[in-house]
Amino acid sequence: MVTDQSAPPAGSVDAEPREECGIFGVWAPGEEVAKLTYYGLYALQHRGQEAAGISVADGRQVVVFKDLGLVSQVFDEQVLLSLRGHVAVGHCRYSTTGSGTWENAQPTFRTTAAGTGLSLGHNGNLVNTAELLERSRAAGISVKNGATTDSDLICGLLAANAADKGMEQAAMELLPTLSGAFCLAFSDESTLYAARDPHGVHPLVLGRLERGWVVASETAALDIVGASFVREVEPGELLAIDEGGLRSSRFAVPEPKGCVFEYVYLARPDTTISGRSVHATRVEIGRRLASEHPADADLVIPVPESGTPAAIGYAQASGIPYGSGLVKNAYVGRTFIQPSQTIRQLGIRLKLNPLRDVIRGKRLVVVDDSIVRGNTQRALVRMLREAGALAVHIRIASPPVRWPCFYGIDFASRAELIANGLDQDGIRRSVGADSLGYLSLESLVAASEQPRTRLCMACFDGRYPIPLPDEAMIGKHLLEGLEKGVAGAATPVMVNGYGAEDALQRP
């Protein structure tokens, strides 16, 4: 049985994009699994600030509570106390596929023909969504009213097959047919499952509690709930955890292609990926950036918080003093309150404000993680000059982003990416900096300490490790959806989170 205890809110959520999604799952009889999941999601909040949800199962039923907003906005003590059981799945969402509606919040849920429940959380993006949609239609599986995500398609297909074959066997048959990036945490009434795509594009880790097990998008979430790190969920692996213990099955041969942008920006600095500390990687990036692009300056400052470790490394290698020249408002995130036009015009000042006494009269090296459209850096340079900076040298802790991501990160379309239309000096002039330097791809790979062959760097080099559908097929399905809607859905299913025009521009 599945019970949905939440309802769509009256307001709408700010649509400015963030990263991707965070998933968390726990199997722990005797523990307050809802609270463990709440704190796990809190640790993963940076991965998605649009919506949050938790499902809890007690052996008899699956109960789901989800809503738009931050984890702390969606859940309170009373709600968490009502979610009782021994297995839980949690999700914090930013929409890379489907719109930012309540219906698309996760965990998504389905009932099987046998009346059992299925709750599923997904991080990543599939590239064969159109194929899965056709398969669902052929099998008579309807799109859940209002849902427009690849995650709902996965859940529907899994639930349809589980009635006859059992959840584990249904997963072993479905997972090999999914193409793209996916980390999944899902459960029925008694068992927690976790799966990672054969390329292991995004991280998924396994942890041990005294009385149970945890799976999470990042090791930092294990630390928060007191779980000890056991290992990464392997690419192409399905885990099942119940009273019989932990079982591991292989549904595909692993072909590792971990997302290098996790090291640049997505993951928390206190996370470890493939045995490499994210913080140590970013400090090393800064050191290499100083070697590749030195500057004659008085002070190195980061764009907080993602630029901080690289700025530390840059200062260490260059000998230029490190300082805090920008103050970040830690409470600016998803909000139901739309800023007024007057406030909106202030733009970046909602999040960053200069320390004028630190900046005035200084030649600055400003270290940021990446440039996508260039709007943030343009506003930042202007703000620093107004605060009295004599020179602003921008240093970027990654190569130019020239290609969109189809595997779960919401970059702009290729036409909107500033590095796709301008050379480096053109970008420098566009943002108004005195100089501009990007880290080389070779140095980024070296800083990650991962073999180049095990990394996905498509956003930098345009080489997509997972084949993408041809342009015509993407456009065909998207246009059909836009014209007709899908099985009564409020908005059309989207492939890869891009509209038809964007999809047709992809490489």
TrEMBL record:
Its cofactor is [4Fe-4S] cluster; Mg(2+). Pathway: Purine metabolism; IMP biosynthesis via de novo pathway; N(1)-(5-phospho-D-ribosyl)glycinamide from 5-phospho-alpha-D-ribose 1-diphosphate: step 1/2. [4Fe-4S] cluster binds at C259, C405, C456, C459. One of its GO terms (molecular function) is magnesium ion binding. It comes from Actinocrispum wychmicini. This is Amidophosphoribosyltransferase. GO terms for biological process: 'de novo' IMP biosynthetic process; purine nucleobase biosynthetic process. Keywords: 4Fe-4S, Glutamine amidotransferase, Glycosyltransferase, Iron, Iron-sulfur, Magnesium, Metal-binding, Purine biosynthesis, Transferase. Mg(2+) binds at S306, D368, D369. It catalyses: 5-phospho-beta-D-ribosylamine + L-glutamate + diphosphate = 5-phospho-alpha-D-ribose 1-diphosphate + L-glutamine + H2O. Its EC number is 2.4.2.14. Residues 21-244 form the Glutamine amidotransferase type-2 domain. InterPro entries: GATase_2_dom, Ntn_hydrolases_N, PRTase-like, PRTase_dom, PurF, PurF_N. HAMAP family: PurF. The keyword Glycosyltransferase applies. The keyword ATP-binding does not apply. PROSITE patterns: GATASE_TYPE_2. In the C-terminal section; belongs to the purine/pyrimidine phosphoribosyltransferase family. Binds 1 [4Fe-4S] cluster per subunit. Binds 1 Mg(2+) ion per subunit.
